[in-house]
Specification:
The complex is a heterodimer. Chain A is an alpha/beta fold. In chain A, 37% of the residues lie in helices and 19% in strands. Chain A has helices spanning 9-17, 45-59, 71-79, 90-94, 147-159, 164-167, 177-185, 196-205, 207-211, 235-246, 252-260, 275-284; strands at 32-36, 63-67, 85-87, 102-109, 115-116, 118-123, 138-141, 170-173, 191-195, 213-218, 222-223, 227-230, 265-267. Chain A has a 6-stranded mixed beta sheet with strand order 2-1-3-12-4-13, with helices on both faces. In chain A, strands 8-7-9-6-10 form a 5-stranded mixed beta sheet. Residues 1-24 and 286-296 of chain A have low confidence and may be disordered. Classes of the chains: A alpha/beta, B alpha+beta.
């Protein structure tokens, strides 16, 4: 194993990016770069620092978390081989890639299953009782590549016979589920779509903010945003990461971390878990927007 | 007990005026300075608020630039939210009360109050915030403050256009409140007023203290001078001089002056006493002399007669002598006592009788070489009367004329004049005799004072008493070798309704009128 620890991975990545071949950007110094998206609340910095340290110790790799404002930003980094792994949403995961460069590693277990819902929330004092009451209002989506924050509410509108592009007077992206909650709480938006996991963990950490909102619709369950690895990640590293994550629930320190993240654990899942999202994307005929350049 | 500071009653006291003046001056000064400072401070703060508001608008517009281009309204909102959240304690100099990003058509992209100004609608359509003069913003080419005449005076409005490639893609309007400044101004004003009043109060106490310190000696001085004016020197107490300033000097001088006055009065009293004793002595000596002179001869006569009581010749010879001696003593006593006992001079006298005097004076002169200058005129009286009888007036003038003639054995000039000065008749008797020295002048009106060997020294004494009884005065103006001039001043009374107890008697008034 090459242990040129003093060479910064980004330097190597930048140097090798110009070379042909998709493997060239992966770090060969053992650094494990994991992309984070808005499927988690990155603002809980201490929890994620502890999570990073935990992974570093358990995997024996220098783990670093990489954050971009949009899902697409992380997907681009994965595509360029600048990330070894990423915690992404099911919607980007189900997008067809040719050739495929991602492998499903694990999905978090949330309240007994690797499943979550998409919620439609409104300000607490709103008169809206269902999503149709939000017609001609202002609506906050989280990210155009989000399942729960974009695909699900639009699909719901489409199922109800509305044109998602015209139903709202105005809509915008917050690029974060947590920000969507804030946008609704502060009544910048008349309604918004959020991840049920994010909404619930926020109600634990930011009860005042969440108390200013109200859920008017919860979707059916979908596969929880998974952790994927680059297909070219060395098998031993992949295995070590897999074992570390799936073993967290059985380890006191890992269990404590999971509790802080409001998760039961991580378990291996198979791609069919995300078939419902795939179906949704196909039926809603929403073109995939995940190629925009990273805004930040 | 006498209060140390008498209450002043002659107009506003210095005790009041000094503290009032100090209080007013201090209050006015503090107030004026304070208000000027407040005014300058207000202007500076206001200018500072405007500058900050404009700078904030520029910075905020710059922060929203890329979000506007990306149509990222949530980021725009977060930029505005930072404006609001940057001052959680409410202490910012430019407290932003309202801020809005609008697109070139005036549609809200983000507003600090999204409930009233929803995204995607024209500004103010759902609320009352149309007060923001956003019309001003739409055509703006550079960041500027909305002119004062277009905006609410309680706010400062700044407009910052967001221009990309020469094209306005949006605008920021930012409104900050002057409320905090106004509150500050009010607090400052209250502080200045309170401070001015407090200072004025302190200074008025100080003024009261200092004026008391300054005025107390002045009051005591004033009171002391009053007492001195009344002649009540014993009521004057030394004035305590606290400072060695002008007032201290003044009180020191005053104390010295009072002490000297007291001493002088004591000395005068002693002098008067001594003088009285001297006069008495001289009087006793004169009286003894006048009585002893004939008494010696008479005792001899009586002794001789006692030895030879049967000598008829002696009796015949000595009885006239004894008679003469006794009469002389009786005359002396009469002259001395008779006039003192006197009549109460109840009648009035017109000066017409004076005309008769000229002959008497001329006969007194006889053939001495004395020129008589007679200028006594009846008309000088102007219808007024004297409170005396004619013989008394005659006696006064004749006594003076007699003395004058007596001192001019070698001849000279005798002048008698009368004149009226208002309600007084002045009679002058002047001679060109040897004059009188100062001692003679001071003693000449005493009984038995005489300079002539044959005189008994009672003439001037009688004259003096007569004049005094008539309510007049007599004085002498003389010097050795310069003659003497006696001036008798007698009060005149109106014949009708004139003041004075004599005229008040109806019968006399009637008589006087008849006589006129």
């Amino acid at each position: 194993m090459n242990r040129r620890r003093f060479l910064r991975s980004t330097t190597i990545a930048a140097g090798l990016a110009a070379l042909p071949g998709r493997l060239s950007a992966l770090a060969d110094d053992g650094t494990l770069r994991i992309g984070l998206t808005a499927v988690v609340v990155r603002e809980y910095v201490r929890s994620f620092n502890d999570f990073r340290d935990y992974l570093t110790i358990r995997t024996g790799r220098a783990v670093s978390f990489v954050q971009r404002r949009t899902y697409a930003g992380i997907m681009d980094l994965l595509a360029r081989g600048e990330l070894e792994a990423a915690w992404i949403c099911g919607y980007p995961y189900v997008q067809p890639r040719e050739p495929e460069f991602l492998d499903l590693l694990v999905a978090p277990v949330y309240r007994g299953a690797p499943l979550y819902r998409s919620l439609v929330i409104v300000p607490a004092d709103s008169v809206a009782r269902n999503i149709e009451d939000l017609r001609d209002g202002v609506f906050a989506y989280s990210d155009p590549d989000s399942n729960s924050g974009y695909l699900v509410p639009r699909s719901t509108l489409a199922e109800l016979g509305h044109d998602p592009d015209r139903f709202f007077r105005f809509s915008f992206f917050t690029y974060s589920h947590a920000e969507t909650v804030a946008a609704v709480a502060e009544q910048v938006a008349d309604g918004g779509a959020v991840d049920s996991y994010i909404y619930n963990i926020q109600s634990r950490y930011e009860p005042d903010l969440v108390a200013r909102t109200r859920v008017i619709r919860a979707s059916r369950q979908f596969g929880f945003p998974p952790i994927v690895v680059h297909r070219d990640l060395a098998p031993d590293v992949r295995l070590r990461l897999l074992n570390t994550l799936t073993g967290m629930a059985g380890d006191p320190e890992g269990a404590a971390l999971l509790a802080r993240l409001d998760l039961d654990g991580f378990s291996q899942v198979s791609p069919p878990l995300y078939d419902s999202i795939r179906d949704l994307a196909r039926r809603a005929a929403v073109p995939f927007a995940g190629s925009a350049a990273d805004a930040l | 007990m006498r209060p140390q500071i008498r209450l002043w009653t002659g107009g506003p006291s210095l005790m009041v005026k000094i503290p009032l003046t100090i209080t007013f001056v201090v209050f006015a000064s503090a107030l004026i300075i304070g208000l000027v400072v407040i005014d300058r401070n207000w202007a500076r703060q206001r200018a500072g608020l405007e500058t900050q508001t404009l700078a904030l608008a520029r910075a905020t517009a710059a922060a929203g630039r890329s979000s506007i281009l990306n149509n990222d309204v949530w980021s725009l909102y977060r930029v505005l939210r930072q404006l609001r959240d940057r001052d959680p304690d409410g202490i910012a100099d430019a407290p932003v009360v309202e801020a809005v990003f609008v697109d070139p058509a005036g549609i809200v992209l983000a507003h600090t109050d999204p409930t009233r100004n929803p995204v995607g609608l024209p500004l103010g359509t759902a609320g009352d915030t149309g007060r923001v003069p956003f019309d001003h913003a739409l055509g703006a080419e550079r960041a500027h403050l909305v002119p004062a005449e277009l905006r609410d005076p309680d706010f400062v409005d700044a407009v910052a256009p967001i221009i990309v490639d020469g094209l306005t893609v949006g605008s920021l309007l930012l409104r900050s409140s002057t409320q905090r400044l106004t509150a500050q101004l009010r607090r400052d004003t209250v502080i200045v007023l309170t401070f001015s009043l407090g200072l004025a109060l302190v200074m008025s106490l100080f003024g009261a203290w200092i004026s008391r310190r300054m005025v107390a000696p002045l009051s005591a001085l004033s009171e002391g001078l009053d007492a001195v004016g009344r002649g009540d020197l014993h009521a004057v107490q030394p004035v305590a001089a606290k400072d060695r300033d002008e007032i201290g000097h003044l009180t020191g001088q005053f104390n010295r002056m009072v002490a000297e006055l007291v001493e002088k009065k004591r000395l005068e009293k002693e002098l008067v006493e001594a003088e009285r004793m001297a006069v008495l002595g001289r009087f006793a000596a004169g009286l003894a002399h006048e009585v002893n002179n004939p008494l010696g001869g008479m005792i001899n006569c009586v002794d001789t007669l006692a030895q030879r009581p049967d000598d008829a010749t002696l009796v015949r010879k000595y009885i006239p002598l004894l008679d003469t001696g006794l009469k002389r003593i009786a005359a002396t006593m009469q002259a001395l006592l008779g006039e003192l006992r006197g009549e109460n001079c109840p009648r009035t006298c017109k000066v017409g009788c004076l005309t008769d005097l000229e002959a008497m004076v001329r006969s007194e002169i006889g053939d001495r070489p004395i020129t008589l200058d007679w200028r006594i005129e009846n008309r000088d009286l102007g219808g007024l009367t004297l409170s005396c009888t004619c013989p008394h007036l005659h006696q006064i003038i004749m006594n003076l004329a007699h003395n004058a003639i007596a001192v001019m054995p070698e001849g000279g000039r005798l002048a008698l004049r009368s004149r009226r000065v208002e309600k007084q008749l002045i009679i002058e008797v002047a001679d060109t005799g040897p004059g009188l020295d100062e001692q003679a002048q001071s003693q000449m009106f005493e009984p038995f004072y005489t300079t002539s060997p044959g005189g008994n020294g009672l003439g001037l004494w009688i004259t003096y008493r007569l004049v005094e009884r008539m309510g007049g005065t007599i004085r002498v103006d003389s010097a050795p070798e310069a003659g003497a001039r006696f001036e008798v001043t007698l009060p005149l009374m109106a014949t009708t309704g004139a003041p004075g107890h004599h005229a008040a008697k109806p019968e006399e008034k009637e008589g006087a009128t008849r006589a006129a």
